[in-house]
Amino acid sequence: MDFEIINGSVETLKTECIVVALSADGILYPSAAAVDKASNGYLTELVNSGDISGKAGEQLLLFKVPGIQARRVLLVGLGKSDERKDRHYRKLVKGITATLKKSGITSVVFALDGCASYRDDIYRETRQLVEWVSADFYQYDETKSKKADPVKLESVQILLTEEDTELGEGALLDGVAIANGVDTARELGNLPGNICTPTYLAERAEALGEEFDELTVKILGDEEMAELGMNSLLAVGKGSAQPSRLIVMEYNGGEAGEKPHVLVGKGITFDTGGISLKPGAGMDEMKFDMCGAASVLGTMEAVAEMQLPLNVVGIIAAAENMPGSQATKPGDIVTTMSGQTVEILNTDAEGRLVLCDALTYAGRYNPETVVDIATLTGACIIALGHHATGILSNDEDLAGALLDAGDFAADRGWPLPLWDEFQEQLDSNFADIANIGGRPAGTITAACFLSRFTKEYRWAHLDIAGVAWNSGGKEKGATGRCVPMLSQYLLDLAEQVEVEDHHHAHEE
Ligand code: BES
Ligand code: MN
Ligand code: ZN
């Protein structure tokens, strides 16, 4: 699918379908008004006759509208002015892409005149359109014997005024990069556990390293990790025939020697719970327990594609949590890479066990910030449902930056407190820390566990248990979430760098 920003007059656009809009009170926005004028009031007549009123989500697909070159006009309702929130805009795009799919349309022009979103921000509105159209055409067929029909839609053009074109083109480039990252994250998430193993994730990272010059990838196997003392990470993979992997991706887009921003992803390629075995119902969904890792891979891809002027390190802690005969048992105690000992009271609380060693490893980079991303706790679904990523941090500014980034990228998070009061739930009689803190505040105590390993740097934890995939039914599948939030977070940091460079240039 090709995206392009175009200018010009609506009447002369040669396309299979032009999308124009009206508001709830029947007011035609400029592009719709232009179609109306060229067709001698065709659209006004439809409004007057009550065929469309402009309610949010309303659509009318029109053929051969007189006076214009486009084959079809898709007239869409944007509703009232307070119906332009992200959720409305997302729904609008879903509706439009459904129509495009149904009619097998191969080329479309969006002429929404910057009115579809409540924010007066052409960059944001354009980027969201690119990301969402792209996401709606994602189809999984990797493990089906009958491949999906190729996507018919080839050309997506977005009509902007000449003065908005530069902004729009920036949005398009960023949007395509983020959309590709989301695609990658969804595909990895959707692949089954017997294909998407720790070794497979490592191969995918290496392939990404081949693709981009600025990206160097290094893989640590069981032996190398043992040498580093990553016994906690290794304890998780012990019950599995699949070897564990620590995947390290270094993106060097910033100045040499500039402190990197590190992303750490939980990559449990299947979580049976281990000896603390999970119940059988719905256990297949634990193939999604590597979605944190997938979002790191997807974000690294987006960052490399956008060529951000930053140093970013992506680390993935990959293991399969199985109850084999060598498996870790409840009560076993391991010494982590940090030297702290952990009593593994529940082998199903394995995410924190792989992450703690990866977080210690991250410290070697003397990082500016570290963000870990994990499908860590069922409790997060109870706390925040399926809409918000849980954000926990030892640094208010960092938490704020992620919150803002998620808001801007329509991939939102929400903070939970990381107070010291919760820490004592992790007390153990036999080790420095227990790996579980009981039922109360399960998301917070999991983050408390991680906080024991992140004291040396600014750190935030994203619990994506509720947002990383959709369960059951037709919608079942990975969402690619936190790629937009993380990409935005890094875009914002890159912008700061650019502003600083600009200042320096002026000072000199
Ligand atoms: N991967 C799960 C968390 C999870 C469960 C995410 C369901 C999404 C849906 C994690 O490894 C886990 O099993 N966590 C336990 C922790 C508990 C044993 C302290 C949980 O949430 O029950
Ligand atoms: Mn688990
Ligand atoms: Zn898990």
From TrEMBL:
The active site is at 278, 352. Pfam families: Peptidase_M17, Peptidase_M17_N. The keyword Cytoplasm applies. Mn(2+) 2 binds at residues 266, 271, 289, 350. It catalyses: Release of an N-terminal amino acid, Xaa-|-Yaa-, in which Xaa is preferably Leu, but may be other amino acids including Pro although not Arg or Lys, and Yaa may be Pro. Amino acid amides and methyl esters are also readily hydrolyzed, but rates on arylamides are exceedingly low; Release of an N-terminal amino acid, preferentially leucine, but not glutamic or aspartic acids. Residues 346-353 form the Cytosol aminopeptidase domain. Signal peptide: none annotated. HAMAP family: Cytosol_peptidase_M17 (MF_00181). This is Probable cytosol aminopeptidase.
